[in-house]
User: Fold these one by one.
Assistant:
Number 1:
Amino acid sequence: QVQLVELGGGLVQPGGFLNLTCVASVRTKSMMPMGWFRQAPGKEREFVAAISQRTGTTDYADSVKGRFTISRNNAKNTVYLQMNSLKPEDTAVYYCNRNRGSPWAWGQGTQVTVSS
């Protein structure tokens, strides 16, 4: 059973930044391509960013390209999301999960609120 814990959310003003962390309770050999996803109130969960397992190749939703950066540390089973130039429309609960095959059980997520 994989457990995912997302940390680092909070309240930030427009234009501000936040750094999110995801810790996955998996063995290093089991690491998969990983992604960040988000769900705003009344909307479906959507893809935000992804990073490959070994080469670190990244992919981003158009809405966050140039503002968000995903990275990972396989030795620590950790994935990060650096979010800059935040906008009110970035407000959502942010989750991490694998980006291949059926998702693992979702964690609690971390709330990001962008508001003045």
Number 2:
Amino acid sequence: QVQLVESGGGLVQAGDSLRLSCAASGRTGSSYVMGWFRQAPGKEREFVASVTSGGSTAYVNSVKGRFTISRDNAKNTVYLQMNSLKPEDTAIYYCAAKLPGRQRYDYWGQGTQVTVSS
């Protein structure tokens, strides 16, 4: 089992920055693909970004150029640096982990709220 705990959410104004962190514990390993997802009120959960063990990243188009995902394998932590935040980025942000080759993410955190005011 892998436990994931997110932190770093909060209330900010449009144009501000936030950095989310996701600390992993349990049967962790650098081989996991780590991802960030978000769910806005009344909407389905959507993929935001992911990073492989080798550092390859992927982003949803709406955050490209504004968000950066990174990982520190020594600390078992994944980060999501969010710049130039917009009101439409308001959501609960979830960290997730999966083994390479799997389509579905197996482990999820409880989420952290990000609210961007206009």
Number 3:
Amino acid sequence: QVQLVESGGGLVQPGGSLTLSCVASGNIFSTNNMGWYRQAPGKQRELVARIRSVGDTTYADSVKGRFTISRDNAKNAVYLHMSSLKPEDTAVYFCHGDIYDFSKLISAWGQGTQVTVSS
């Protein structure tokens, strides 16, 4: 069984910064793609950023230049550093990982962490 646990969400003022963390635990052989998604009230879940095991990154146009995704393969962790935050970044942020246990590839989601950008 594989679990993803996010941390680091909270309330921040516009223009501020916040870093989200996500750690995978359980029966893990290796992690492949890992990423962050977000879902605002009344909207569909959308990709924010993704990072491959070799380090290639993809960002949503709305966060390019403001957010940075990184990973630590030794810790089975992925991070999202968010800067120049805007009210429209307010959402629940979910961690996702394509994770190999010792028999199959699992698409795993975290429980989500709330990010609120408001003055």
